[in-house]
Amino acid sequence: xxxxxxxxxxxxxxxxxxxxxxxxxxxxxxxxxxxxxxxxxxxxxxxxxxxxxxxxxxxxxxxxxxxxxxxxxxxxxxxxxxxxxxxxxxxxxxxxxxxxxxxxxxxxxxxxxxxxxxxxxxxxxxxxxxxxxxxxxxxxxxxxxxxxxxxxxxxxxxxxxxxxxxxxxxxxxxxxxxxxxxxxxx
Length: 186
What we know:
globular, alpha+beta, Peroxidase, domain 1, 2 domains, 4-stranded mixed beta sheet, 65% helix
């Protein structure tokens, strides 16, 4: 069976790249990015919206109509709204979160920044986020855009992904390592 995460990633990157090119032509890279961030926030906050986007049970027309109503209410229009229509019509909404992540990476690269995906056990304060950005800038030598995801299952610490590098200081990983070491001793 094919690896669906790799399939999703390829679909997401192609769609995000196309959207970025259109936004660049229209001079609305930042505006489109903000609209996509609002869409990502709505997906994170609403289980119903997430189910609508990810479920193959709904027709493309139902998904498109519902998303256009949500976008109208949220004040999202223009390129981002049209993009959602195309993605819904092509039955690719299952990869929408990946498309948004890929767009962020492409836009950051265009601005000369590096994008970092950070997973934290709890939401980071503004001070913690700026301290993390400063630390990552010291390591990479470039400005860093940080996308924080909250995952309470890591218990504590952070998981930071910058490009192909990953630094895992999560408590969950440390406990797993300790458990494995204790099994080898005893």
